Amino acid sequence: MGNMDRFIANIKEGGLSRGNRYELLITAPSISALGNFANNGGAEQLRYRVSTVSLPGKSIATSETKIYGPVRLAPYQITYDQLSFSVYLSDDFRERQYFEDWMHYVIDYDTHRIRYYKDYSASDMQLMVMDETNKVTNTYVFEESYPLSVGEVSMSYSNEEPATCDISMTYRKYISKSSYTEAGGGRKKRKSQENLRNTVESQGRSAEDIKRALSASGY
Fold first, then answer.
1. Which CA distances in Å does 98 have to 27, 52, 101, 112, 120?
2. What global pTM score does this model have?
3. How far apart are CA 172 and CA 40, in angstroms?
4. Cys-Cys link to 130, which of 21, 34, 77, 182 (CB 3.0-4.6 A)?
5. CATH number at residue 125
């Protein structure tokens, strides 16, 4: 009975995360190729159309080493799975077109020219996890992301369900904001970015204003 009481107390204190309490904030590069959808608050619209999303796994890649005795697994890098999500589509498929145009900016549709990485990768994407009161309890930041694939859209005369499209995005790495600390070069920079972002957002300014503020500050 004592163990059960502690279990109940633990659940009451920390709660249980619900899989339907989230928002995915997609911030694409400021490129004219994304058209009017991007310029007219497309990222803001997309955050309410993500029907499913998976927080990617991460793991430490290792290699076997042996000097004497049992073999050891020596770590050499962290690997990340792709970020995958599904979006509800508008009547004109503008959400799918958004990611297609982004992909065509990475590799030009006509010339097949590949642009510079810094030009097509997004500054960050954010997956926000919320509690039952819709308070953000944690945020995962995906750095230098861009779309890797745009999935098929299934259509059928007998299908009355809303059309959806699966999107897969790659990125350099991701971290939880709860892992931010004041010490360390990279961590200190991320903390400074976050403070600047919060300042701009508190003034009621747009995602484009945030990008300009980060760029002006050298981020």
1. 12, 18, 5, 19, 13
2. 0.74
3. 27
4. 21
5. 2.30.110
Residue 106's nearest CA partner among 146, 143, 145 is: 146
- Total count of domains within the chain: 2
Q: Determine, yes or no, domain membership for 50.
A: yes
Going residue by residue through the chain, which has 219 residues, state the pLDDT in tens, using 9 for 90 and above: 457 777 767 766 667 777 788 999 887 776 665 665 555 566 677 888 999 999 999 999 999 998 888 899 999 999 999 999 999 999 999 899 889 989 998 999 999 999 999 888 887 789 999 988 888 889 999 999 999 999 999 888 998 899 999 999 999 999 888 776 544 555 666 666 666 666 766 666 665 666 566 555 555
Instruction: Centre a 10 Å sphere on the Cβ of residue 97 and count the other Cβ atoms it contains.
Output: 17
Instruction: Please list the residues that pair with 173 across neighbouring strands.
Output: 143
* In a shared domain, residues 107 and 215: no
Name the DSSP class of 161. S
Structural domain contains residue 93: yes
Same domain, 184 and 139: no
